[in-house]
Amino acid sequence: MTAVPQERKLVTAIPGPKSQELQARRLGAVAGGVGSVLPVFTKRLDGGILEDVDGNRLIDFGSGIAVTSVGGSAEAVVRRATAQLADFTHTCFMVTPYEGYVEVCEALAELTPGDHAKKSALFNSGAEAVENAVKIARAYTKRQAVVVFDHGYHGRTNLTMALTAKNMPYKHGFGPFAPEVYRVPVAYGYRWPTGAENCGPEAAAQAIDQITKQIGAENVAAIIIEPVLGEGGFIEPAKGFLPAIVKFANDNGIVFVADEIQSGFCRTGQWFACEDEGIVPDLITTAKGIAGGLPLAAVTGRAEIMDAPHAGGLGGTYGGNPVACAGALGSIETMKELDLNAKAKEIESLMKARLSAMQEKYEIIGDIRGRGAMIAIELVKDPASKTPNPEAAAALAKACHAEGVIVLTCGTYGNVLRFLPPLVIGEDLLNEGLDVIEAAFATL
Ligand SMILES: *Cc1c(COP(=O)(O)O)cnc(C)c1O
């Protein structure tokens, strides 16, 4: 293993000739429905730098969508996964079990909020974890309805498409969708009609009113929410909203599910974003940052809820693959050793200070929000109208890419520029990436 030098360096235009050659092959062989933000083909990934096949080194503000929080080739992940690969690649946990799976479930019980008895089940992807959380909640409550929120994102399988709010690109043309899914308002402070201060309690009252009047609380199996909404635009539900929803769920025998697939594992400066308001979910779904880039996902929760489905009712051929479990143990080891929660908080203060300074110069930055290393700016035509400005988001992302900084957009209106740097990124690279973003604003 050779370390990737931690410096931005452009030796060709982006994408370079070798990437373009591979992209031409890709267009001939890979289905058009699978897109790429930036068609730069990767050679190596380490720390805060992605090195491409042309020898360019780009600053990574995306982490493969909040996955490689410990870096793309973290020492402990590579060491443990390599050792596991040499021993065995697969048995299927449902055929003959292995220790790594149990160890990951023990770690999840230790790290997730609450000191009640907990159990976990492991899967391959975030969507699969969310699907299984619904299965478990339905088996436990013997109810069917599932409540989700405006701007929510939960995946691309049929049930999780139904749970997801945004039509394009996630749902368009792919229906019919799973039934018994209901969407209610979320506390989106920046766009709440009566202002951010009133948003939390007002939005909670509206959501609860809709649930009781339109569905009936006694019919609801689960309420599922991202404690910081990811694809929907890094929306932090206004203070008071989540505790009110949790209380309503508890009072009515509804399973409260925190989808921490994007916000979990140190991303927001805490092991899980729901800790911010002291929330203890009944079930919690995790994936993305859990295993340093290897495909793994989990549902963790109260033992009596997790044990509700009959034996054999949960599982899957690859769920909790031993190499992915080894990767997760390496990732968790790294997070603890390097105190990546503290690192995420440092990233937040540095980024927010720099972005606030930019906001004073560029009034199209309507809102700066997020926590830890999950930070975003919402772009508007002007701060009074708050009309979404997706063109600016696209233009800024394009300018950053050309200068060797990988940034992503998101948001229901496509007008949010989001930053998800690896938590191990150096401060100099973080500042340099922000310099490039600032320069991109100047050329708008
Ligand atoms: C990414 C994501 C999912 C889906 O995860 P996949 O691994 O892509 O299936 C679900 N929920 C949230 C909050 C996510 O960010």
Brief rundown of the structure:
By secondary structure, this protein is α/β, with parallel strands linked by helices.
Q: For this structure, what is the CATH class of the largest domain?
A: Alpha Beta
Helix content: 25-40%
Strands across the major sheet, in which order? Answer: 4-10-9-8-7-5-6
CATH topology of the largest domain: Aspartate Aminotransferase, domain 2
The gross shape turns out to be globular
Distinct ligands, ions and cofactors found in the model: pyridoxal-5'-phosphate
Distance between the termini: 41 Å
Can you count the beta strands? 15
Name the poorly predicted regions: none
Overall tally of domains: 2
Structural class: alpha/beta
Mean pLDDT: 98
Order of helices and strands: HEEEHHHEHEHEHEHEEEHHHEEHEEEH
Helical segment count: 13
List the helices and strands and how they pair.
Elements: H1 17-29, E1 42-46, E2 49-52, E3 57-60, H2 63-66, H3 75-87, H4 99-111, E4 118-123, H5 126-141, E5 145-149, H6 158-163, E6 181-184, H7 196-215, E7 220-225, H8 241-251, E8 255-259, E9 283-286, E10 297-302, H9 303-306, H10 322-337, H11 340-361, E11 365-371, E12 374-379, H12 390-402, E13 405-406, E14 408-410, E15 416-419, H13 427-443
Parallel strand pairs: 3-13, 5-6, 5-7, 7-8, 8-9
Antiparallel strand pairs: 1-2, 2-3, 4-10, 9-10, 11-12, 12-15, 14-15
Helix pairs in contact: 3-10, 4-10, 7-8, 11-13, 12-13
Bound molecules: pyridoxal-5'-phosphate (PLP).
